[in-house]
Amino acid sequence: MNVSECYYLGRVTKPWGVKGQMILFLDVDSPEEYAGLDSAFIEIKGQLVPHFFHVDQLNGNKAVVSFEDITPEQASALVGHDLYLPLSLLPKLTGNQFYFHEVKGFHVIDSRHGDIGVIEQVIEYPAQPLFQIMKNGTEILIPVIDQVIDRVDRELKTIFITAPNGLIELYLDDINTEC
What is the pTM for the complete model shown? Predict the structure, then answer.
């Protein structure tokens, strides 16, 4: 199993108590869905290593866990390491909902400008995520918000949008003035 076959779940943050328990930060929208989680891959020196545990407490995005078959010292050595789960465990989304990793390579069609390019990645900024779209070597950034996304067509690998007035022109003007 490698990272490209997984999604980021969170991180081992610190020890808790005196029995070797650890706190995991779950970087997910619905942490309660992970209350029954009993294992995860932990990235150690670039390798994903399976670890088994029991969730003792769940408080918001923080889970107190007891690892199986390792000493408290070994558990403490996991602090700062990232947690992953296989992509196959993600529930399938429908309609206009999507996972950011899912839309990489999708074409973006704007209602006024037509095909504006292909999504290279979704950049996750604190204020809001952005589609990074490349068209003829020029980067176009589009906010990933419900008001912009009209329709997601998974079969065609296309997202139909209506970009805010003037946004795409900012990028297209740069393309037109370079020609």
Answer: 0.67
